[in-house]
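name: query_chain
kind: protein
chains: 1
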Amino acid sequence: MKVSTTSSAPRGVAPSGNRRVWGRLFVLGSASMLGLAPLAYGVGLLAGGPAIATSALAGVGLTALFLCAGLLGLRLVLEAHEALVLPGVLSVLGFQVLALLALWTQSQKAPSSLPALDAVAFGYGALAAALLWQASLVGVLMHTRQLLYPTVAIPTDEEVVR
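structure:
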């Protein structure tokens, strides 16, 4: 399947109708979370037992839900008019950060409401999930991107006159 280069999407942005890109983003992001879940649980078991393992797994799971919802939000935003893309993307990402911050703040204020949840293990699981998810998405986007200026020749070091 050849990716069409004629699109109404702005140059440098994958066309929103390109199901291949969104499918790869969703599948690779989800697969990375499914691969991380047993690893987080295993590290948690080794570090402190079942309570730590469950907390780390909860951190991975909740972060995966937030990031998956954000990916769906980004898909909707990128289908909008090109003038709304940047504010929309920033809004989606900002909402994700604020929602996770609010969740973390609430977990710090009321640790007695979730006695089985270890905040540190939860945080490490969430951090690992966010980093792996972002690395997966960058990998997919680097392989499916459209160049901004595909016909412009970039000069080599020898051609640059100083």
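note: The longest helix spans residues 19-48.
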